[in-house]
Design brief:
The structure is a single chain. The chain is of the alpha/beta class. It has helices spanning 14-26, 41-50, 64-78, 104-111, 126-138, 155-169, 201-215, 218-226, 262-270, 303-308, 310-321, 331-335, 437-446, and strands at residues 2-7, 31-36, 55-57, 82-90, 115-120, 144-152, 173-178, 187-188, 191-192, 247-252, 257-259, 273-278, 291-294, 296-297, 326-329, 337-340, 343-344, 349-355, 361-369, 381-388, 390-393, 400-406, 414-419, 422-425, 428-429. Strand 23 and strand 24 form a beta hairpin. Helix 1 packs parallel to helix 2 (41-50), helix 1 packs across helix 7 (201-215) and helix 5 packs parallel to helix 6 (155-169). The longest helix is centred in the N-terminal third of the chain and has 15 residues, at 64-78. The chain is elongated, with a radius of gyration of 22 Å. The termini are far apart.
Length: 448
């Protein structure tokens, strides 16, 4: 039982409405949340709303068979009654103006899932029906089975718009949300503030859930999910399982570093790794582990605290100098440089990191390994995503692991700074797009 909550565009209230629906349903049912696209932040809201770790589905990273495998894994792991998928941008937006790759529509097709269209109806009545008709007819294989009107002025506006959509577009309107600035959430340069930082966010989520219960026909929503039918045939493995030696992998997980795809962590565990969380922010030194994984996050915001934790920085530098494998992405890359905006960091790479006002990298990425390293072998091609406002001020001739075939990287279409058994890159990769990631990394850890 599944549903896709898709927008007519960005900023129509998808995350607020989707999270509220997840929260409202979670009071009676087990809900497994999903997010379309390479997003770490919206899933943190889903996780708080449902108590189950949200998962990413992305057709640039995944084949249709992998999408179905990942969806089923999520439902099985959480023993969920419903799978609820929040879309990205508009329903049809992807990496191409005419194809589906990277779009919410591609996920709906792969899962043959019904779609609820979320529409900003401010100042619209009959025109709202025209918008829905356009979305229905652009791709008739997409099953748009309901509409939620956001930003309605009042009850009269809602009822008039509902009548227009239902009679002219032939789609049921299952709810309408009135304008309320009180339910907006703080933003920052990478999007919504990660839920892990907001102690009061549960209050917001509770309010969103109440608003949904008051303004959306939950029985109609559940009925649509229950009638979704069976998933299409065809499954493909998401990752390789080749490491047989038990290892311990430390994963930086705290207020600073928290950008991880759930399946990246699961793939490590499937390759005989015990995942040991640690905090570069709060812990004094590394735990007893064989390798460490430092994901993305906001180290620039916590640069002062990271600098003050000198014992942890020295512990990581020693771990690196001893030849142990270290893999870092984006914010993790910055942490391994000399400094972030002048604040001292781990000094593994003799370059400084600085924040800029303009985005430096925002793209799906295709990378090719230039040489063997702890996650890939020379010639391996894998996919990922970059989104950062920072620069690493490299000089000289750094050793790079990856050639960037699509995207930007650190400089000159190169990425993946290398030193001993450390690789640090701006590329966030999903294990489905780099199936050898966990098996290679855990074997590297086992070899030391």
């Amino acid at each position: 039982m599944r549903i896709v909550l898709a927008g007519t565009g960005s900023a129509v209230g998808k995350t607020t409405i989707s999270t509220g629906i997840m929260k409202a349903l979670s009071e009676e049912y087990r809900v497994q949340p999903f997010k379309v696209g390479p997003d770490y932040i919206d899933p943190s809201y889903h996780t708080l709303a449902t108590g189950n770790s949200s998962r990413n589905l992305d057709s640039f990273f995944m084949s249709d068979g992998q999408i179905r495998t990942s969806f089923e894994r999520g439902l099985d792991t959480s023993r969920a009654d419903f799978g609820i998928i929040e879309g990205v941008r508009g329903l049809y937006e992807g990496i191409s103006p005419i194809d589906d790759v990277g779009s919410t529509a591609s996920i709906a097709k792969a899962l043959d899932a019904p779609v609820i269209l979320i529409l900003n109806s401010r100042s619209l009545v009959k025109s709202a029906a025209a918008v829905v008709i356009g979305f229905k007819t652009l791709d008739p294989t997409i099953k748009i089975e309901g509409v939620i009107l956001n930003q309605v002025k009042n009850k009269n506006h809602y009822l008039k718009t509902k009548e227009a959509v239902e009679k002219l577009a032939g789609v049921d309107v299952i709810g309408g949300i009135q304008r309320d600035d009180a339910i907006k959430v703080e933003q920052r340069h990478l999007g919504l503030v990660p839920a892990v930082e907001r102690e009061n966010l549960l209050g917001y989520i509770d309010k969103w859930g109440e608003i949904i219960k008051e303004n959306v026909d939950m029985d109609a929503l559940i009925s649509i999910m229950k009638n979704a039918g069976k998933l299409p045939e065809g499954r493909e493995d998401t990752w390789q399982e080749e490491n047989r030696k038990k290892v311990k992998i430390g994963v930086a997980m705290d207020e600073v570093f928290n950008f991880y795809y759930t399946e990246n962590i699961e793939s490590l565990e499937a390759n005989n790794a015990k995942v040991v969380p640690f905090s570069p922010f709060k812990d004094e030194e590394l735990p007893d582990v064989d390798g460490i994984y430092i994901g993305g996050g906001y180290p620039e915001i916590f640069a002062k605290e990271l600098e003050q934790n000198e014992s942890m920085r020295r512990s990581i530098l020693k771990f690196h100098n001893d030849g142990n494998p270290v893999y870092a992405e984006c914010g993790g890359l910055m942490y391994l440089t000399n400094s972030i905006n002048g604040k001292k960091m781990c000094e593994i790479f003799n370059y400084d990191s600085v924040m800029t006002k303009k985005v430096q990298g925002l793209s799906y990425v295709i990378s090719k390994a230039r040489k063997d390293n702890i996650i890939t072998k020379k010639g391996d091609v894998f996919r990922g995503h970059e989104f950062h406002y920072s620069k690493v001020l490299v000089n000289g001739k750094p050793e790079y692991a990856f050639k960037i075939l699509r995207g930007k990287g650190i400089e000159n279409s190169l990425d993946g700074l290398m030193s001993k058994n450390t690789v640090a890159s701006y590329v966030h990769t999903h294990v489905a797009a780099c199936p050898q990631f966990a098996s290679n990394f855990t074997r590297s850890a086992g070899d030391n």
